[in-house]
Amino acid sequence: MSNKYERIISRFNITSVNLDYVGPSGTPQGLNRVELAGVLAGLEDKRYELGFMFITQDYAKFSLVANYVLLEASKIIVREKWKLPRGKYLAKRMCQLAVIEVLAPKLCRNCRGHGQYFDLKNNLVIDCKKCHGTGGGTIFSITRRAKLLDVEPSNFRKNWQSKYDAIYMIAYNWLMDVFEHINRKG
Ligand SMILES: [Zn+2]
Question: Which of 107, 126, 134, 136 is the most buried (most CB within 10 A)?
Fold first, then answer.
């Protein structure tokens, strides 16, 4: 870790994000912790711990993983010279929120994951327009993200949404690496 990143990270020091609203996600695949550790063995720590949290829903290593994301995000922040508001710890919050979102279930709220619903008026089963019939989606609206990050929604949409997406993708890609690793091991 370079000192530059350490200095950036040391500026972020916030109270932890409330994880109460993270619901069940994924399935434990019938493995106990020792077996799971075996399946995840060989992954770098950040991916290992993220995958472990995703599968077990044990969030003990949440801060550690959020800090790993922040370390990675710091490279983007420095490279792209983000102007972060002082004293609001926005970068760290965005990293924490990204980990939360990656761990949270991806179900369309409109159709509750079914992808379709029964249209009573026309007596038809129709594809959900919100998720285009996939049943998936984010449970975090822009408004909700902004609120969690303590940023005005209009400010978030204009200045931070695309930056947040970049941070989200760090955590998302790590989780995809975990899935690939698990599939490789069969
Ligand atoms: Zn839907």
Answer: 107
Distance 127 CA to ligand 1 centre (A): 8
**Tokens read off for 42:** 């060989």
pLDDT of residue 167 exceeding 60: yes
175 neighbors 50 (Cβ within 8 angstroms): yes
pLDDT in tens, 7-44: 322 333 333 333 333 333 333 445 677 778 888 999 99
Distance 107 CA to ligand 1 centre (A): 8
Query: What pairs with residue 117 in β-bridges?
Result: 126
Give distance in angstroms: CA of 109 to centre of ligand 1: 6
* Number of domains the chain is built from: 1
Residue 32 lies in a domain: yes
Say if 64 falls within a structural domain: yes
| pTM given for the model | 0.72
Which residues are placed with Cβ below 5 angstroms of ligand 1, an ion?
Answer: 108, 110-111, 128, 130-131
In a domain, 166, yes or no: yes
DSSP letter for each residue of 102-160: HHS----TTTTT-SEEEETTTTEEEE-TTTTTS----S--HHHHHHHTT--HHHIIIII
Q: Which domain holds residue 12?
A: 3-104+139-185
Is residue 39 included in any domain, yes or no?
yes
